[in-house]
Amino acid sequence: MTKSVLLELSATPEKFLEKGGKALQGESVGCLYQYLETKKLLDGETVSYPRVIGERDPNNPFHWRWAFNWKEKINGAWKGKSIGSIPPGTVTMIRTLQQERATRENIIAFIKKAKTKKPSPKLDVCTNFENTKIKPVLPNNAPIAVVLFAGGGGIEAGMVEAGIRPVIAVEFDPTKPELSRAIALNHHCNFSECGCRVVQLTVQEVARLGFAGFPRRPDYLHASPVCANFSQAHTAKAGKGEETADDLTAAIAVAEAIRQLQPRVFTLENVPRYQNSQSFAAILETLESYRYLINYSVVNMADFGLPQARRRLVLVASRGFQVALPTESKSCGWYEAIAHLIPAMADSHLLPKQQQALEKFLAGNAPTPLLIERVGGRSQSKYKPGHLPCNTILRSHFTDHKGCNRSKFADIWLPDGTVKSLSIQGAAILQGFPSWYEFPPETATAGSIIGYSVPPSFASQLLMSAQSYSYVGNS
């Protein structure tokens, strides 16, 4: 329970970071220092902010408040001045400026810019789906990104929404060459105007070629290694998913990309079980050896406004500054996200198992819109009431075991008895795709793009969070 707080606040410098910092107070160079804010609660307890779980780390800039002070000679007398509440993500850059003997004026100007930088607005799928009809126009100086295991292009769509230009996307599945070519063609349709080139080779093959033609030191590098052997769906179907040689060589290729390209920010997305793999450990080891600051966690993307329950491992690593994962936002039910599309969806009828699921729900609940899967439903409920996010969307929902189109993959039951077939457009919104993204007419290809993709709405939030810190290094 949150405790009430009295309006009593003190901010006392605890420690100067520069050697001889106190001696510099009479000069004009200035000093960066960390401090704590102390608040007295109504119950008499005194707490320090920022709040930290466990022991406060003296080397973690996010465990402290930050300020910069200096003295100016005015009318022959030294006057003290200071700037407080400096964003912790800028501390590393300020230290660098000090080491490079930047002038006090330049350091102060940089701090003021950092303090006035407004974070990019979050993409709220529920309220903003009508605002994504027009594709953003990227400026010539937009940050650039390279994408490995691009899948259906969801991460690239999120990049464009975040103002980042994807310049190379690597995607090829040798077990599904025709599907890979179809996805590459659709990728070209959506991102060629951004200057994005699709490389139809495996990431391992690109690594063997030394990433020839790839930009060095791109702003962003993203990887979503193939997750089949780590997914719960694979485990449920085949007993236990085992890490394979292909998984390890893919991770080694990602590590080689980090070594050779040395991006400012590296991001990774995969299923939760990937964090326990040798593959993930190899990537972490490389990031640590190149002194990236790493932050990763398993998140449910429904907690970030996606109208879909989707648990994924998400990592963000950066050089010279630390990036936090995006903050959680308002949750969204599937019905709220696609209600405007339902009247135009094709009529349908429920299969016997769907009818059984409906009757089971109505036996103990009042009628409400239900999204009922036609396939799946082994490990989770086959239906979802409208106020809840839908189940995780998978490629297998759209194709059968032979890779052929499913004419229908989920149905919407309305309280008046109407049954509608969920459309590709509706599934795309549930996956967080912007309205400007163009899908191919074939259900299997479109469904594969949706199922393979990082949800663009979450990707944009992750990258916007990184943007709010990474601009520091460009100053």
Automatic annotation (TrEMBL):
Q: Is Transmembrane helix given among the entry's keywords?
A: no
> Short name of one Pfam family for this protein?
DNA_methylase
Could you tell me the EC number(s) of this protein?
2.1.1.37
Active site located where? 227
Record-annotated membrane-spanning stretches: none
Could you tell me the superkingdom of the organism this chain comes from? Bacteria
* Alphabetic keyword roster: Methyltransferase, Plasmid, Restriction system, S-adenosyl-L-methionine, Transferase
Q: Which InterPro entries match?
A: C5-Methyltransferase, C5_MeTfrase, SAM-dependent_MTases_sf
The record's similarity note reads: Belongs to the class I-like SAM-binding methyltransferase superfamily. C5-methyltransferase family.
Protein name, as recorded: DNA (cytosine-5-)-methyltransferase
Organism of origin is Nostoc cf. commune SO-36
